[in-house]
Specification:
Layout (H helix, E strand, L loop, with lengths): L6 E5 L4 H13 L4 E4 L7 H6 L8 E4 L2 E4 L1 H11 L11 H27 L2 H22 L12 H10 L2 H8 L3 H4 L1 H11 L2 H4 L5 H14 L4
Parallel strand pairs: 1-2
Antiparallel strand pairs: 1-3, 3-4
Helix pairs in contact: 1-3, 1-6, 4-5, 4-6, 7-11
The chain binds S-Hydroxy-Glutathione.
The site of S-Hydroxy-Glutathione has 11 residues, from helix 3.
């Protein structure tokens, strides 16, 4: 139960937001109970733990809920601060990391959704915007190993789950991310060498199957 001591994550397998929390917990080596939610019929625990947004992920730590994935990742970094720091210690670098994580939050999911949900000119506009977003992120990455430099950190955690969806974006938008942002694709492969990421992300084809079920549900075919 959530009132017990310990860590529980209310989540949904394909959610890039939930995957952020899973990757952060894995980086820190935190043991937790994973609870898959049925988003069509949310549990009482989810409704009680996130009464404002009623969304996953929710991290429940010693009975206390923490909502919103980036806030959850920061919380995890604060509580388990002895291992694998995710945010840099320098205030300016911390602000930069938060800026880019926020950019991913505001842009990638929304634009990706338009890419699979819309058709014709609207879909073309989403594709153009997605290419711009990815190229901005690619410029920010530059020739660094990870977004923050040599160590895997906050921006990587915020963005890497969306690479799971790249194949779906490419298939729906009929373009190649490798062609428009090759450094991002190489970065994603590097991140996949980490156990925390490899065990969390799904086969992109499985994500695409999920996108196809969403398309059917929303009558986009
Ligand atoms: C977004 C979470 C979210 O969209 C965060 O945690 O960062 N800003 C939040 N969760 C979705 C599933 S992933 O698409 C969700 O719980 N949806 C259920 C609903 O909207 O009813």
């Amino acid at each position: 139960m959530a009132s017990e001591k310990g860590v529980m994550l209310l989540d949904y397998w394909v959610s890039p937001f939930g995957q952020r929390a899973r990757i952060a917990l894995a980086e820190k080596g935190v043991e937790y109970v994973y609870k898959e939610e049925n988003l069509g019929q949310k549990s009482e625990l989810l409704l009680k733990s996130n009464p404002v947004h009623k969304k996953i992920p929710v991290l429940i730590h010693d009975g206390k809920p923490v909502c919103e994935s980036l806030i959850i990742v920061e919380y995890i970094d604060d509580v388990w601060s002895d291992k694998a720091p995710l945010l840099p210690s320098d205030p300016y670098q911390r602000a930069q990391a938060r800026f880019w994580a926020d950019f991913v939050d505001k842009k990638v999911y929304d634009c990706g959704t338009r890419l699979w949900k819309l058709k014709g000119d609207e879909q073309e506009a989403a594709k153009k915007e997605m290419i711009e977003i990815l190229q901005l992120l690619e410029a920010q990455l530059g020739d660094k190993k990870y977004f923050g430099g040599d160590t895997f950190g906050f921006i990587d955690v915020a963005f890497i789950p969306f690479t799971n969806w790249f194949y779906s974006y490419e298939t729906c938008g009929n373009f190649s991310i490798e062609e428009v942002a090759p450094k991002l694709v190489a970065w994603a492969k590097r991140c996949m060498e980490r156990e925390s990421v490899a065990k969390t992300l799904y086969d992109p084809k499985k994500v695409y199957e999920f996108v196809c079920t969403l398309k059917k549900r929303f009558g986009v075919e």
